[in-house]
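Sequence only, no structure available. Ideas?
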Amino acid sequence: MRTIGDIRAALQSGHGFPGDRETFEVDLQRALEASSEVDLDAVAAMIVDYRGRIRLCQDPDFGIAVQEGLVLAAQLKQKNPRA
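Reply:
I predicted one. Tokens follow.
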């Protein structure tokens, strides 16, 4: 995934976090508005962020790690109910 088109296609195919497909265009517009004609760092950072999000969601170990984190958080909350 090296282009905006690649990221759009991946998001349209259901890759990424829930809501990413809907927020991508808004985030892209904001990044473009924050950029000048010669400085597109905000756009590049946004592309890198979405590319990383898509790759995370494609990693089968990511879902397992998230589930383990949720279980651990629930256990910690049971031990300390005030938190």
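Helices lie at 4-12, 20-33, 41-58, 60-79.
Hope that gets you unstuck.
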